[in-house]
Design a protein that fits this description.
2 domains, 8 strands, elongated, binds iron/sulfur cluster
Length: 348
């Protein structure tokens, strides 16, 4: 792998561009490691425009690590509702408790100690160190890998941890010449605005030191690893209620979407699923109607949900109005309710 042509020039060009062109974002106005931690976790798998209102609500409710550590799990998940990948919410809650209990509420600066926090990997630890503490730790995520595979004309698999570590080492030569927080955020911003999958090289401050641009191969890099198709799991989901209130069940704490309020969901044949539903909720099932299907994709699998409205008697004490319990509803089941709503009108 090549090294940077001119690490110092690279750093100055990047940071000069960043200081002139950066977007004004609320989490860029702070050096508070807690807020930077929250923003980084929210930004994983999520676009800035989507996460911003969540970030602002979250910080208003939990302005510091003590407030988050003292909160109950349900309240944290409720504020996260709709953002998906709920493990991030669970992790940041656990991490906040760890910071309060073990570090007295002060985020550690040490890389290895940061890695002991739930939800914090190499990228997030480096982002916190460089942005909050001005330490020369380059943060390398998928976007930064894309930029650097091009700058170095490096045909590597960007998803491999070993390759990410190599890029970290190359960037360490450069970050030491600049303000670490500007450098890290500059790399992120360049990946988000300029060196996108379809790169805008004519506007790029790194053009003169980009080997891929020099060779005209920037659009062929980075190599796209072959995507494995995600396994599909099929379930029956039941809508049972009076049109305003529905039967919800609290999902077990451990496991996917744990602790959230879900609609009844069963595998197997429809007959088996209805029998299990009738037994679990003491419902005498009269008739049922298939309303359609909903697909939901997780990071590692997909759900195909066959949605049925069920009519019958019993189970009234399980009925709740969506959102009334203060417990979050998983996005997959909000989609099911939206399907029902589309066909039957509002249930507010
Ligand atoms: S010159 Fe083009 S390919 Fe190279 S870093 Fe800039 S935007 Fe990316």
């Amino acid at each position: 792998m090549k090294r940077l042509k001119d690490p110092e020039g690279f750093a100055h060009r990047l940071c000069g561009w960043y200081r002139e062109h950066r977007r004004e974002l609320p989490f860029r106005k702070t050096k508070d490691p807690y807020r930077i931690f929250i923003s980084e976790l929210m930004l994983q798998q999520t676009q800035v425009t989507t996460m911003l209102p969540y970030y602002e609500r979250f910080i208003e409710r939990f302005p510091d690590v003590h407030a988050l550590a003292a909160a109950d799990r349900e309240t944290v998940l409720k504020l996260w509702e709709g953002l998906g990948y709920y493990n991030r919410a669970r992790h940041l809650h656990e991490a906040a408790r760890h910071v309060v209990e073990i570090h007295g509420g002060a985020f550690p600066e040490d890389f290895e100690e940061l890695l002991t926090l739930k939800g914090v990997g190499r990228y997030t630890a480096a982002a916190i160190r460089s942005i909050a503490f001005e330490r020369p730790s380059p943060a390398v995520d998928g976007n930064v890998m894309r930029v650097m595979c091009r700058v170095l004309a490096y045909d590597a698999d960007p998803t491999k941890v070993s390759e990410r570590k190599r890029i970290e080492s190359v960037l360490t030569d450069a970050i030491v010449h600049e303000v670490p927080s500007d450098f890290t955020q500059g790399m992120m911003e360049l990946g988000a605005l300029i060196c996108r999958p379809d790169p805008a090289c004519e506007k790029c401050p790194l053009r003169d030191c980009c080997f891929a641009y020099e060779q005209g191969i920037q659009r062929t890099l980075p190599r796209r690893p072959k995507r494995k198709s995600k396994p599909v799991e099929t379930y029956h989901v039941f809508i049972y209620g009076d049109g305003r209130r529905f039967l919800f069940m609290r999902r077990p704490e451990s496991g996917l979407l744990g602790g959230l309020d879900g609609l009844p969901q069963y595998g197997g044949t429809l007959k088996q699923a209805l029998a299990a539903f009738a037994q679990d909720y003491e419902v005498r099932v009269g008739s049922h109607e298939h309303l359609g299907n909903v697909r939901h994709t997780f990071s590692h699998k997909q759900w195909l949900l066959k949605v049925h409205q069920v009519f019958g008697q019993g189970g009234e004490h399980h009925l709740k109005q969506p959102g009334s319990s203060g417990t979050a509803i998983p996005r997959a089941h909000s989609k099911v309710l939206e399907l029902f709503q589309k066909q039957n009108g509002t249930f507010a």
